[in-house]
Amino acid sequence: MTQPVSGTTKGGGQAAAAPRRRKKLTWDKVSFMLVFLGVPFVLYIIFVISPFIQAFIYSFTNWSGFSPKYDFVGLSNYVRIFQDNLFLKALGNNILLLVVVPLVTIVLSLALAVVVTVGGSSKGQVKGLKGSGFYRVVSFFPYTIPAIAIGIMWGQIYDPSNGLLNGLLRAVGLSGFKDYPWLGDSRTAMLASMFVIIWGFVGFYMVLFIAGIKGIPAELYEAARIDGAGRLRTAMNITIPMIRDNIQTAYVYLGIVALDAFVYMAALFPNAGGPENSTLVMAQQLFFTAFQRGQFGVATAMGVVMAVATLGFSGLVFLVNRLTGGKDQELV
Amino acid sequence: MSVLNKTTAPEGHVERKAEATKSDKAVAGVSHVVLILWSVIVVLPLLWTFMSSFKSSSDIFASPFGLPTVWHFDNYSRAWQTAHIGEYFGNSVLVVGVSLVLVMLLGAMSAYVLARFKFWGNRFLYIMMLAGNTFPIFLAMVPLFKILQNIGILGTYQAMIATYTSFALAFTVFFLHSFFRNLPGEIAEAAAIDGAGEWRTFFQIMLPMARPGLASVAIFNFLGLWNQFLIPVTINASGPKVLSQGLFSYAQQMGYAVDFGALFAAVTVTVLPVLVVYIIFQRQLQGSVSQGTSR
Fold this sequence. Notes:
A: 63% helix, Sugar ABC transporter permease (chain A)
């Protein structure tokens, strides 16, 4: 297996043509490969891959999580959760989040990013707005804050009597909002929660889009200008098509956030579910089913439904991007 | 100033400095208004939380605005000690610190081998690594709970560190893979010719060369792990609490009860250190975001 001589197997001075020659298998190399791949992959397989696989298997059993025994029950866990009104309610709420949160976050962060990068003069060099660095830094703040702290903070801001929001509304004379329970009323609880999530992510995606926009060659903008395109046309016909892959990434990640939303809802609503379960999400149901009701089998089935929803959504985003002409960029 | 500019040089202006037209000014003005508005929406809640952390509960009840009548620094000592935020902070530093070092080391190791060595199964391992990134974490949590229990480490630092490290691996490998791939090969070749083994080549040459990439990934891993909530809440319910988890259980215990000042102080303690570090290193971080997106 090991060759005694390395490198110069072919006589003559021809120095390595291929960048990676076949080398002998030394102890150095074997130990190197074993350790460098072995240690990370063993960890990864035990703690990441195997739980995912087990989750799929358990979702077809009646495992309680406590007894070592369980029976396979076919699809009955799935049948059961799709007849469970509470889970369906949670699924509906997640879908609502999925429709609103990514769209609003992306529109808002894209608008801010466009304004920061190309809001400057319409003559000469394509320039950003003055002071754009400041806005970028400030907008990014929420991303550095743990989601749980964001949730608790906003829970206080929405507080009916001592909260910042009602305080501000009263201060500008909207006394109708005196003591209005934003999180306690099923009409506003979901909207208020959505705002919190959006607040937490706009800055990050703004920075991401700014980076994308800066990567667009300036000649494109100059050419568009010479052709007489205005700011809006430039944004719609150059900026957005050029960073559509960034937008796709953002959509996928925000979709994952919206289908989860566990941490925000847990922090905002001490009584899980909020008023009339208007903010109950699937992850909360999963959590209670597993760790409080001890129905691990049912809980993992919920997890599988969430995973399928997430993957389905990602697939949809890729598909839409492809169908609307992503990748092979059509520039006007 | 604007009038002067406009009247002096419509044509043949010597300096090639672009002038602002009327519409430019309007657009810039509107842009600033929009951006300032958003900045206020971002900063105001934070300032309010900070301010409230020095108030007594009665101050908070009296008015949501206004400075504290007496500055209650004792809110912080109650949050730190009575609410155990100090202890949770320490746990977080330990768990996140060790996990971060481990995941960077292990991630760099496997990314390097996957990126620069040809061997049977390479592609399979890489795709398996990526697959872990596509499934939502909560699917894994229930079986993971059981696995940790079976190994006998449920509720320990080791369990948290092993879980944090493993779940951060996929992102780390994914990012560093392309980074190692783009490093020039000649230097490694030269090292090999000079007699350096694979181990030495990696630790003394490749790893230092990858420093910018490592820094970016480390920053994102730090934020991701420090802010992690789902993992500790599910698998560490009985273990030494980390900050996000401890803050949550403190807020829960309080319910509608009394000590709002201490709650605001606890939130501030959670938010402020990372925010300050961010402000200091924001230049590097902004760079990382752009690096992360350029692939």
